[in-house]
Design goal:
11% strand; mainly alpha; 54% helix; Methane Monooxygenase Hydroxylase, Chain G, domain 1
């Protein structure tokens, strides 16, 4: 799979729209032709603070649900981006098959 490389400013999709994400998404990474955002550790910090403050378990669980949904959304965005950019636009059929095989291995782990 493609390696992540830090970028200095937000990148845009071919259509010119910034990658969907939300307010918590700040740091931008670029891998090959992929362009997406990674959330900073805001959820982790918020959950740690809530635990220190002895907040109600249901509040902490709701924060964990939000963090899980954000990670799931990012994963789905990356899967779609990889399919569009690395598989559809592979330089050769052999490269496309290789990228597809790598994605299938990751997807098997993703759905476990």
């Amino acid at each position: 799979m493609a390696r992540l490389q830090s970028a200095q400013r937000p990148q845009r999709h071919r259509g010119g729209n910034e990658q969907p994400g939300g307010v918590a998404l700040r740091q931008v990474f670029v891998a090959r032709s992929h362009k997406w955002t990674i959330p900073p550790p805001l959820y982790k910090n918020a959950i740690e603070r809530m635990l220190r403050e002895n907040r109600d378990c249901s509040e902490i669980l709701m924060q964990l649900v939000s963090a899980r949904k954000a990670i799931k959304s990012l994963s789905e965005t990356l899967i779609h981006s990889h399919m569009r950019h690395c598989i559809e636009h592979a330089h050769s059929p052999a490269e496309g098959r290789k990228e597809l095989q790598e994605l299938l291995v990751v997807l098997e782990r993703y759905v476990e």
